[in-house]
Design a protein that fits this description.
With 94 residues, the protein is mostly helical. It contains 3 helices and no strands. The mean pLDDT is 76.
């Protein structure tokens, strides 16, 4: 394998045009395969169901959070969103 085609720790200005072009080409080839995976398919399905009116916006937001941040991000977002609004004390009225 040609050593110049490997990604390395060189500075940007030290890399050849061929290396830049090769890296860009590899990323362009890999992008469609990343958009066909399980998580993006779930997001596509959730978006379609939202547009058709089968699910609500909160369900779509939960699917988006899962796709972007995983189950941990969904739990963190749920705990943030379930807190009481600021300014309300225990036993206070709205």
């Amino acid at each position: 394998m040609d050593k110049e085609l490997k990604l390395c720790d060189k500075n940007l200005w030290e890399m050849s045009f061929r290396l830049h072009f090769t890296v860009l080409l590899k990323r362009m080839i890999a992008l469609p395969s990343k958009m066909i995976g399980f998580k993006p398919s779930c997001l596509y399905l959730a978006t379609w169901l939202l547009k058709k009116g089968f699910i609500g916006q909160w369900v779509w937001l939960a699917v988006l959070m899962m796709v972007l941040f995983g189950i941990v991000g969904l739990k963190v977002a749920g705990s943030i969103l379930s807190r009481r609004p600021l300014g309300l004390e225990e036993g206070g009225t709205v």
